[in-house]
Amino acid sequence: MAWLSPEEWQAVRLSLEVATRSVTLGLPVAVPVAWLLARGRFPGRPLLDAMVHLPLVLPPVVVGWLLLVTFGLRGPVGSLLHDWFGIRLVFTTEGAALATAVMSFPLIVRAVRLSLEAVDPGLEAAARTLGAGPLDRFFTVTLPLMAPGVLAGAITAFAAGLGEFGAVITFASNIPGETQTLPLAIYTATQIPGGEATAARLAAVAFLLAVAGLLLAEVIARRLHRLLGRS
Amino acid sequence: MLEVALRHGWPGGFTLEAGFAAPTPGVTALFGPSGCGKSTILAAVAGLLRPQGGRVALDGAVLLDTAERIYVPPERRRCGVVFQDARLFPHLSVETNLCYGLRRAPAGAEGPGFEEVVELLGIAPLLRRRPGGLSGGERQRVALGRALLSRPRLLLMDEPLAALDTPRRAEVLPFLARLHDAARVPILYVTHALEEVDALADRLVLLEAGRVLAEGPTEALFARTDLPMLAGRRDAGVLLACTVLAHDAAGGLTRLGFAGGELLVSQRPEPVGTRLRLRLRARDVAVATERPRGLSVHNILPARLAGISPAALPQEVFLVLALGPTTLLARVARDTVAALGLTPGMTLWTLVKAVAFDHRGGGGIEA
């Protein structure tokens, strides 16, 4: 990638890092939440469902602002994190990952939930009669059968996370090398005279990554389906 | 002894209220039309359905007692279930499927070993394959092996052959019959197919609309004429426990012995000494007041007319014939009673053609 300048390359690498971290952060939370939404029988379920989907309909800037209020140095959670663990999220790469994770969370939950609902409960019942307890049958039957959906969801969220703009710039700001991801770098380039070439190159990279992500998700899902004996 | 007493109601108004006891070991068949509640009973015994009321105990161990608030979850009941749709795990190989229950069985549990089960069911060539590529019959055999290898205290089979076509059924049924001898665990077998009852059931529980109509040893229930579910069928008749005595290859005949005498039947494949259970349909049995001559019928056996019972159709009757300790049923037109002057207690000649017995799987299974 000699045609990218070191600064541009840095933005691409940062974007990949932020997206990877956001999926790593979001997936372990999304699976139990999707489980609750698909299988849970509790009064607050519609509310949880709405909360999960909120980032999909709220303006991203609002999500970023809410994160700033909550996780800022004087926010209820942010101040505790800083005082107890010395963790600062605002204006950091970790913060950008958090903002991206929140924005892509509904995507992952939806994918995981759909794949969970497609799992035949009869197979889980069979596992029960063979002596498998709740966690045992989740990890040996349910989760493997969900795998295609979970992976496809993770890849889609990753691809979408590469381009998260509003929430990141609001919560983590636009610091080169720290929080300036691909879309932020493109935006910055368009604001400086003579930045069109940079913007065009970065846009081309964003395009390639998005297409690659979608194709990969498709290929993996198909592979896994074949592995599971469903064409 | 498996003791079952269940009560469960559905919003639609259907209620199940059934109780029975099944000796262990042995095969007890729950037999009845679709929707009679037999699969529900099985699910409740397995623990997959929690009935509103009832008690299930296996050899003294209580699995369910709603009055005592006891509910052992399915994963701790050690009831191996063979479902109608096999339910093999599609992401695991046949071998891993087979070992799924085995690996989770308690350390001290006894049961047949992996090689023994694989050999019994003839599934050695399938071990490396995935369930997706198996035929229906192969799938059901693997499911059977998987349940058996989980070292169950009780095997529950929910119409394991119902989803298969006739050739596949004939392929799996002999394995079930071999299991009957080899399993050493009690089996509760749900079915609505008579040939499976004939082949497998030591004991029969008749169900209709959520109630138990009758229960008892299979052969005894089929000899009764007051159970329309059995006696009203076209293929109603008694089950005869026989032993293969000799073959006459030149004449194409096999001589069978049963408790009340001997029968000549169309030659059978089983070796001498094999114990069989054959269905002798009541419509295939005729009687004569004098010993007939010049008849193609091979079996002409003296019997005592023990009784005359109404059949399902008003124009027909059952003649209950006693041959020593064995009861046979003959279904004849009502007119026969008057025409031949039949009265209970008299001696009759019972006529059974050698070709009256079915040859396909269900008719002759080693019992």
Task: Outline the secondary-structure elements.
The complex is a heterodimer of chains A (231) and B (367).
Chain A: H1 6-39, H2 45-57, H3 60-71, H4 76-85, H5 93-117, H6 121-129, H7 134-161, H8 166-171, H9 182-191, H10 196-227
Helix pairs in contact in A: 1-5, 1-7, 1-9, 2-5, 5-7, 6-7, 7-10, 9-10
Chain B: E1 2-9, E2 15-22, E3 27-31, H1 38-46, E4 53-58, E5 61-65, E6 70-71, E7 79-82, H2 94-104, H3 114-121, H4 136-149, E8 154-158, H5 166-182, E9 187-191, H6 194-200, E10 203-208, E11 211-217, H7 218-222, H8 228-231, E12 237-248, E13 253-258, E14 261-266, E15 275-281, E16 285-288, E17 299-310, E18 316-323, E19 326-333, H9 335-339, E20 347-352, E21 365-366
Helix pairs in contact in B: 2-4, 3-4, 4-5
Write a compact overview of the structure shown.
With 231 residues, chain A is mainly alpha-helical. Helix content of chain A is 77%, strand content 0%. Chain B is globular and about 65 Å long.
